[in-house]
Amino acid sequence: MLISVMPLTFLGLILGLLLGIASRILKVERSSIVEDIEQLLPGTQCGQCGNPSCAAAAQAVVDGELKATFCPPGGRAVAEAIAIKLGIPLDLNTLCDEGPKVARINEALCIGCTRCFKICPTDAILGSAKHMHVVFADACTACGKCEAVCPTECISLEPVQPTLQTWVWSQPAL
Amino acid sequence: MSDYILLLVSTALVNNVILIKFLGLCPLMGVSTKMDGALGMGLATTFVLSLAAAASWMLENWLLNPMGLQYLRILAFILVIASVVQFTEMLIRKISPPLYQILGIYLPLITTNCAVLGVALLNVQNQHSFIQSLMFGFGSAMGFTLVLVLFAGLRERLAVLQVPELYKGAPIAFIVAGLLSVAFMGFAGLA
What we know:
The complex is a heterodimer of chains A (174) and B (191).
Chain A: H1 2-25, H2 32-40, H3 54-62, H4 75-86, E1 101-105, H5 115-119, E2 125-126, E3 134-135, H6 145-149, E4 155-159
Antiparallel strand pairs in A: 1-4, 2-3
Chain B: H1 2-14, H2 25-30, H3 35-67, H4 73-95, H5 97-103, H6 114-125, H7 130-160, H8 170-185
Helix pairs in contact in B: 1-7, 3-4, 3-6, 3-7, 4-5, 4-6, 6-7, 7-8
């Protein structure tokens, strides 16, 4: 037993050590600013900005190819954070952020085709074939992917309703 | 010297690892849709196969045989192959990020490419020397790359042809692979 375990353990240790050294030597340098920007993004790889992933989008915005307002699910908050981080001017007029939204399924029209929960990047939709689907509001980032694939157009993005915890007085109007 | 060249040619063409031995069919179908992806995959597999053949020879003759642990062969070889693949992945990521993007998931999957383990085990079975093992690995990998590139070229042409609805996509690719295999049997006349 021991005679078969020891050589394998030994082999694994040596190979692990070699790989560890190799990973140090062959480390791909990524600028820390790109990683910081990527941390600010939702990380759902929804692709609405036209980039295949949030990492690619972070790289593009650092290179100046995208505006700070490129991220639709991130909305105003993310755009401001990116602009502050990069020190670039921010034009919020181009951003039509209507406040946080959440996807809602119209149960009367849902045919249970499962397309929306297969495409959801945050696993915020629950359902199974030929059964009604439902959205977990806490996990939904309102990226709109489910809205695009729904064959019966029963998914809509609706403003988040204020709860007792989130409701505030509206600003006094002059 | 001529022995080694003969070994190289016979492993690359006559006993082609994909079309005659039917090892490593997954990348043949998976990464043969584009020419540059196929070439990159072929070169990455060449690197892994040669290195794994050499490493597994050393492992077999310096560790497993002297200690009488032949029954651990497959396990130990898989360990070595997985490490070589990891190393290759790091290397490609460093050297060529575009290639890394193209190969994507198929790069770590070289670990499960049965051609790699198959060649290592055949080396042991045929009791090759170190140089012979290296040649056998390299020759197999060359054959692998050749077939992958040939097949990618064929599939690029297939993509623009009018294929009957029934055979579109994977079915026609399998038929073409079968025909290519029949064609490669012609190389048996070389031996």
